[in-house]
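[Amino acid chain]
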Amino acid sequence: MRFRKKKILIFVDWFLPGYKAGGPISSISNLIDHLADEFDFHIVTSDRDLGDQVPYENVLINDWIEKSKYHIIYLSKINLKGFYFKKLYTEINPDFVYINSLFSYSFAILPIRCLSSFNPIIYLSPRGMLGEKSLEIKPLKKKVFLFLANAINFYKNINWIASNEIEKQQVISNFGNNLKLFVVPNLAIKQFNSPDSFLMKNKGILKLIYVCRISPIKNIDFLIGLLNSLKGEVLLTIAGPIEDEVYWEKCLDEINLLNGKVAVEHLGEMSPSDIHLLFKSHHCFISSSFNENYGHSIVESLSFGCPVIVSEHTPWRQLEDSFAGFSLELNDVAFIEKIQFFIDMNNQMFLKYRMGAFEYFKKKIDLDTFKDNYREIFS
């Protein structure tokens, strides 16, 4: 008898060929890449990338498209309606619904509400949206929503998927202990990348790369403000779209105060393949983010053998023990000390950190175990 794959209907705000949303797209893309042989994925998403005013070019809208590993429908704004979601659900008749957001009205709140009559099995990944700093963005709106959601028991039948123990506690803190809650890290990119091609490291010179959206939660101005305190030639490259123009103006004010030996360049929006090239042409990845429930760019950097300097607000620990980089408290002294450490590093020691980053990736990102976790959840 032929094996029938279980169908998973995924709601996500943005997906390929979009890339500006970063982590959420990577989370779903990697999940499908690993498990497409075992599950039948159907994706419901928007017809444009994050922040875009026009739909994708040369992409069929409002109709299912069959890809090699999944089916996808890109919906125009007019079809982001409850009755249309019900129609799609009836067409697919999925075994599970998977929601990759928390506060998105169109791709989280609305699907849960309008599909309740079908009594579906729903899994929801909050994707760091319950982190302290995330809740400080539009705080009143989020507090009111969380209060009302608890008051009406909106999430009573939801299966929660937290990326780590910290996020697990955030879910419990907001919604109580009586939950169906799984803890499974996101799946990383499928294949390893050889670290044998890398940028030479001369003492007194350092090229840093920060892949992120220009947003206050990424704490970019903090990082720029440290650069004048460093001794040596430093370039900080930022790759990512400007999400908050007012915040970027604040960053530009900091950049204008820099001395001649340090510089910041903003490359703007870049495709994943172009970003991967940056890991090979820079010495270290750096992140001063207030909140990263996973950090796909951190993991990808490690997979390319590019050591990382990150804030403690990520799930990645014991980096120093593996010569993979540093996880630091968010203060000037700690970041200046470790950035300076890499500035003063020679190529021989830098090679040790390159290999350390790659080995850390292989050791910590246990893809087979994580895949088994998702298999168990979806079974």
Summary: The mean pLDDT is 90. The first helix runs from residue 23 to 35. The radius of gyration is 21 Å. The longest strand covers residues 39-46.
